[in-house]
Amino acid sequence: MSSSRSWIVRLFAGIWQVIEIVRRVLVTLVVLALVLALWLLLSGRPEWTVEDNVALVWVPLGTLVEMVDEPPETALLQRVFGERPRQTRVRDLIKALDYAATDPRIKLVFLKLDELEDAGMAQLQELGAALQQFRKRSGKKLVAYAPAYSQPAYYLAAQADEVYLDPMGFVLMAGFGHYGMYFKEALDKLGVDMHVFRVGEYKSAVEPFERNDMSPEAKVANAAWLQVLWEHYKAGIAAPRKLAPDAIENYAANLPAVVEAHQGDLARAAKEAKLVDGLLTLQQVREKVGAIVGMDEDIDSFRQIDHFTYLSVVDRPRYAPDTPAVGLVVAQGELIDGESVVGMTGADTLADLIGQALQDEQIAALVLRVDSPGGSITAAETIRRQVSRFRESGRPVVVSMSNLAASGGYWIAAPADQIWAQDTTLTGSIGVFGLVPTLDRSLAKLGIRVDGVGTTPMAGALRIDRPMSPDVARAIQLTVEKDYRQFIEQVAKGRRMNAEAVDRLARGRVWSGLDARRLGLVDQAGGLQAAIEAAVELAGLDADNYRLEVIEPQRDFASSLIERLSSGLARLGLRQLALPEGLQQIAQRYELQAAMRWLNDPSGVYSHCFCRPSIGGR
Length: 618
Description:
Layout: H1 2-42, E1 54-58, E2 62-65, H2 72-80, E3 87-89, H3 90-101, E4 106-112, E5 116-118, H4 121-138, E6 141-146, H5 151-157, E7 162-165, H6 184-190, E8 193-198, H7 207-210, H8 216-241, H9 245-253, H10 255-261, H11 266-272, E9 278-279, H12 282-293, E10 295-296, E11 301-302, E12 304-306, H13 307-314, E13 325-332, E14 334-336, E15 344-346, H14 347-359, E16 363-372, E17 374-376, H15 377-392, E18 397-406, H16 408-411, E19 418-421, E20 426-428, E21 433-438, H17 440-445, H18 470-495, H19 499-505, E22 510-512, H20 513-519, E23 524-525, H21 528-538, E24 547-550, H22 557-572, H23 581-595, E25 605-608
Parallel strand pairs: 1-4, 1-12, 2-3, 2-5, 4-6, 6-7, 7-9, 13-16, 13-24, 14-15, 16-18, 18-19, 18-20, 19-23
Antiparallel strand pairs: 8-21, 10-11, 17-25, 20-22, 21-25
Helix pairs in contact: 1-22, 2-22, 3-4, 3-13, 8-9, 14-15, 18-19
């Protein structure tokens, strides 16, 4: 009887398992069908049009970047929870101005600058030049407004014909700085020994682990490039505002006295300093612009189209697919070994993209846009080899430096036929370092000891819970010196200089683009478009008949689906939910972990420059 019952139980258990499997399959199919249906529903692009007599709202959002580099799920969360994009591509801002200059439907450009969070000085220079070129080509008016201007935002605003500020606002201008935290005393208290290996008295990236302050050598070098950036910032504002550079200097250096003289009214102080043309509320500015292009009653503002939407309408391929092309690839963020992650360039990913350009016979030249402080020396060498392969194919390579192309960022640029940079680009920092912490003293404070035996003196020699022997330290230092010599040799070969001359310019020192050009590390001053035109000329292409082939990592189906759904949800108006606190905490932890991902070089040796200046006035 018990055997019979057991058989019946097993039978029904088996039937239930089959039912459960079928249920799961059906649920999965239903979900996939719903997703596919939603994909098809939202896959169509909105039918935007550009009406006659409108203002183009030019609105840099978040951080200015060379390539939008956010995970698709972030884009989805931004759409669903009402957040604005956190990145704006510089090339898109320039492209929108280029189209609008000859578009009779666009009567003026309105610079909305209150949502710009971060930008580099070289990017500001490039955008400032594009704004001035727009004025020259089109004769159309530029109007700028913000409730308050950060230092980067004001640089852009100053290029406008009319600059307005809210009566309760301010123009924050405090100069440029480069400050950091130093950990030597804290490491000593914790019993952490940080073994530092480097070449060059200016390779200050390791100083926070060796000192409690900035070294005199680093102060001299940093002050030099900071002053170049500050002089260009002042000149870039003074010229269009018809002010003397000294007036900008006095305003920034004496801001507390300016505040006191105007009894705390910073808006009035900015107006009397001629930094702005008028103090108006947002509605007053809307009506002022509306007097030119008309008002839109639905939004209670002037008739307008933002530059994102405008580009989606007007930016269409202008040349046939078989037109000769210039390839464009971007190295943005720290260089890491392996595949790219958000905010960092993986050597394998970038090498694959350059390989695609190498295999495409229609690509006659390559432009490498670099905005990177370097990172893994293995990653830098992997990319450099691929850049050299492209050049060895008989096709030219031109490097365009953005804000920062230093250390490993310069390593990958060295083989190029030409290097272009803004005067305010930070470059050089030709040096190598290694960092190895040991925690034996920290553990000893807790009463923890490490002991054992090994078959050779090297067994366990690299454990961080044991002291580092002098022999191991010497071996690591020799490795760093070898990598430095290799760096010098690659630069010397690419720049057609002798190694001794490169060594005098190297030793970890950071140079402004202005000084780098004088020293022969950079060929020409100019932005991305100038570099593209140089590549066209070097390749012997027709300047009026070529196309730009932007080569970026391909997203998989799931990523594309999330991106498409985010766009569709925005059109359906699902944008007003609040992000749960738990998700915020997860996002914060993810960002902290991501910030350390660049420390993945297989040999533990890096060519990295911690030299991003603070230009936000803080």
